[in-house]
Write a structure and sequence with these properties.
- The chain has about 375 residues and is an alpha/beta fold.
- It has 13 helices and 14 strands.
- It has helices spanning about 15-30, 45-50, 55-65, 90-100, 125-130, 170-185, 200-215, 225-235, 245-260, 300-310, 315-330, 350-360, 365, and strands at about 1-10, 35-40, 70-75, 105-115, 135-140, 150-155, 160-165, 190-195, 220-225, 240-245, 270, 280, 335, 345.
- The strands form three sheets. It has a ten-stranded mixed β-sheet with strand order 2-1-3-12-11-4-5-10-8-9, sandwiched between helices. A two-stranded antiparallel ribbon has the order 6-7. Strands 13-14 form a two-stranded parallel ribbon.
- The longest helix has 18 residues, at about 15-30.
- The radius of gyration is 21 Å and the shape is globular.
- The chain binds nicotinamide-adenine-dinucleotide.
- Nicotinamide-adenine-dinucleotide binds near residues 75, 93, 281, 284 and 286.
Length: about 375
Amino acid sequence: MKLNVVCIPGDGIGPEIVAQAKKVLNKALALYGHEITYQDILMGGASIDVHGVPLTDEAIANAKAADAVLMGSIGGDTTKSPWYKLAPELRPEAGLLKIRKALNLFANLRPAVLYPELADACPLRGETRKNGFDMLIMRELTGGLYFGERKTITENGERKAIDTLTYSESEIRRIAIKGFEIARKRRKKVTSVDKANVLDSSRLWRAVVEEVAKDYPDVTLEHMLVDNCAMQLVKDPAQFDVILTENMFGDILSDEASMVTGSIGMLASASLNDTKFGLYEPSHGSAPDIAGKDIANPIATVLSASMMLRYSFDLDDVADAVDRAVQQVLQDGLRTVDIMSEGCRQVGCSEMGDLICERITGGQRDEK
Ligand code: NAD
C-alpha cells in the first residue's frame, strides 16, 4: 500500500516529536512492505511567522488531498509569545479550529491506557492501579451544547443566559457507527454515556445508538449515565473499552480519563470524519518550556501515528507492531524525563525514537 500523509510539525516540541513518529512509520511500513510519502505544511505560530495567518487555504487544500494528517502540536507560551498579541482569529489555535472544520472532523478519539510499567504515575490506588486499563473515549466534536444557539437576555430586571443543546438523528448515527466500528477493532464493547433520565437529547442519543447496535451483534452495548461514568472512571476504569458520548460529556470525561493515567506524554488522539480520513495528534500541547532541548516524550505522537495506521489505513498488523515496540521500550526500562523512575535509563526524544524503531519486529521483509 502507498500512504500519502500530510504532516504538521507545528510549534514548540512539535517538530521534534513528529520527526520521531516519521522515523517509526518509515521503519514499520518498510518492514511490512508498504510505502509512505509525506508533505509538510505550516500551521499555528510557524505559519503566522511566514504567512501572517495560522493556516493558509493552500495548506488546507494540501491536507484535504492527503489520506491522513499527522500533527505535532501548535502554540507558544501564551503569556510571552508575540503570537498571543494578535487578534483571536489570527492566533495559533485558530488554525486548529479552522482545519477541524474544513476537514469535517466530527469524531474525537482519545485512548487512555495505563501501562503496568508506568503504574506509579497513576493517582489511583491498590488493585485498580495494579490491573491497568485500556479504554478509548469517543467524543462527538461538532454538535451539542458547544455549537447550539446561545444568548444572554435581560428578563425581569436580571441577566439570563441561554445555551441550546441540540442533536439530530444523523449526527448521532454517524458517530455511533464510528464507535461500533472501532469497538470491533478492540475488545468489542461500547459504553454509551448520556443523561437519558433528564435530557431529551440523551433519550434520542440512546434510541439511535440502540438502532445502530442492531447492525453490530458481535459488539456488546451498555448504557451508563454520565454522573455514574465519572465515578466508575476512578473506581473501576478496567471495565471500559469504548466510551461513546456527546460533545460536552466527552470533553469532561476524556480529561478525567487522561489524568487517571498520569502520563501526559503518552496520550495519543485522533479526529475522524465520515470517510477513512483522520487527523492524528498527541493530546498534549507544544510544551514551549522544553522545546529544542531534545527531552520531550515522543511516545504520544508515535502512538497517534499507530492510530493512523489502524483507523485510516486498516493496517492493524503494522499498528500492532508499533504498539508492541512502545511497550517493549517501557519494559526495557527506557524513559524520557517526564516518565523517568528509579532504576530506569533516561533517554532523549531522538534516542527514544531510535529505540522504538529498533524494537519493531514482524512483517514480510523480516520473515524472509
Ligand atoms: P502542554 O501540554 O504543552 O504542557 C503542559 C506540561 O506538560 C508542560 O510542563 C510540558 O513541558 C509537559 N509536556 C507536554 N507534552 C510533553 C511531552 N511530550 N514530553 C514531556 N513533557 C511534556 O500544555 P500548555 O503548557 O498548557 O500549552 C502550551 C501550548 O500548547 C499553548 O500554546 C497551548 O495553547 C498549546 N496547546 C496546543 C494543543 C494542540 O496543538 N492540539 C493542545 C493543547 C495545548
